[in-house]
Sequence to fold (655 residues):
Amino acid sequence: MSETDPVLSPPCQVVHSHWFFCQQADSSSAIASWHPFSREDSEKLENVYATVGQKNSGDGEKKGDMVVAVEGGRYDVHFKERTRHAVYWDQAPNEVRRCTWFYRERSDVKFTPYTEDFSERLEEAYAAAASLDEWKRTVEFPTGETVILDNPKLIMQYQSPGSSEKTHARAVKRGADNVPVEFPEGEPERVDHLVFMVHGIGPACDLAFRSIAQCVADFRRVSLGLLASHYACGRRDGTVGRVEFLPVNWHSALHGGDGGTGGVDRDMLRITLPSVSRLRRFINSTLLDVFFYHSAVYGQTIVDAVASEINRLHALFRQRHPEFTGEVSVAGHSLGSLILFDLLTNQTAAPRGVTTAVDERPAARPSVTEPRAPHLNPSSPVVDRDGSRSSGASSSAHRASQSVGSDEYFDVGIGQLSINYPQLDFHPQSFFAFGSPLGMFLRVRGVKRIDPSYTFPTCKSFYNIFHPYDPIAYRVEPIIGSEWDQKPVRVPHHKGNKRMHELKDSLSHMGTDLKNALGSLRTVFQSFARRPLTTAAAAEESADETVTEEGDVRGGTPGVHDEEDAESPPPAESVEEPAEAAQHEITVGMLNAGRRIDYVLQDTPFKSFTDYLFPFSEYLFATHSHLCYWESKDTALLVLKEIYDKLGVAPEQPQ
Fold:
């Protein structure tokens, strides 16, 4: 027993290993950081390491055949190369390490893992020192580093042999359990639902100039956290798995240099003026996407890229998840929502089950006798369900609009794309639009009213979600009914206790009381400068000027009061709560199966408070409001609720 005591003593315990991957801030940045895999994924890699490392040591060919799927199957780890590869989108491979030893610079907060070879040398020296109980050892490396093992808890590295300069010293830790790192939670294996997310204009999707893949990763992370908090019982009993979100990138197909119309950036550069070059490059790569989409040539390129990418991702996901039996939905941000609207409007209710090759994009689009535009009235004789015309082109142009009752609506919008719309390989269950300009573009195209009986041919649910200060977002419900005067449905706060609008009302009352108090003081001071009045007349005048919010005015001149009311934020009653909307049984066309379509997020109490202090603060929040959806817990929870409601699973935390 005494012979084994040194091995079992704390300094000689088996080192705790964990697998990390390296990730750069961007493709052009040299700054890299190391991130841990989840405990489940690290255990997978460790099991493969234990078998491959022992049985096939030195056999590089067999070692290279091992590929481990991690992070919900979105990445593959190649064991021989020690690299992490994205499966569904283009991304440079990341280095992967089995980490047992770590160091930290004096100016850093995080620990960085050593290479596996460096760690093995340190582990051998540490084991020898611990077994003999002989410390104060110095380990020198060919690269010039020197590590001094003073004792099991004090290990330092110096950049040059024998150097004791504190500025070059590094703190060294043994074992992943001895470094302050937060290991991410693992993901459930089962996927209940699949959502494809299409980006808007430009290659960047937020203020940090991140790609669509990075922003969708944030949305996925937020949704996993909400599933753990709002569907905890379902997670425990196995009725709730997870929702997979995959990014759809069409910008590279338009702006890339693959030939044809793919080299639009190169063509635009030839005609772009050299002055204010950064601004012009920004406009070329972002704002011009709107004009490109409404071009017959480039609009066809964008639509083909979106449809083919969705079909490719769908087929690849089915191949990697053969057990998947759930439904599929689509989501679009900004211009992406308009692209999806046009695409879904021009789908045909063909039988399901058509699939596309995994590594091949559709070679040809479905044959269409004539380019079809979105027909917003299914019963119209102008455009049939299959896109065929029931009358000549001249008659169609003449009857682009017709009267139904006392309302006028357009079957074919003015400026609508005359292109061939490809077909998706599945029927989407729901369509979520984030910060969508759809309502504005429909008006610009001449669509004055959507037939209330119209629905997408293959998609039965549509949700228009927007932030109240989003300058790009527009409503859709008023286009369905010109007499529609209902406010959008307020999205509940994800915590379900104190709503943001309740805090906003509290701040509103506080601001009103403050105004009234200041008005009363002003009245008192003014009374000293006026001529003496009778007691009754003075009391009557003071009461008229200091009426509270229950009266007709708040004090001061009535005309000024009316103007202030017009600019003040709407009260809480101006937005329908979901429960109220259900009680009134409001029917809004058939785009969302008769349910409400417009959903508005809540602004933060800080934003509401600054509105009273700084009247122009809403313009400062406008840009952020259009890009807030990727990290919005309220948005993610709404999407999850609509998905799991159709599966018969309700959130546990009351809204």
Summary: The chain has 23 helices and 21 strands.
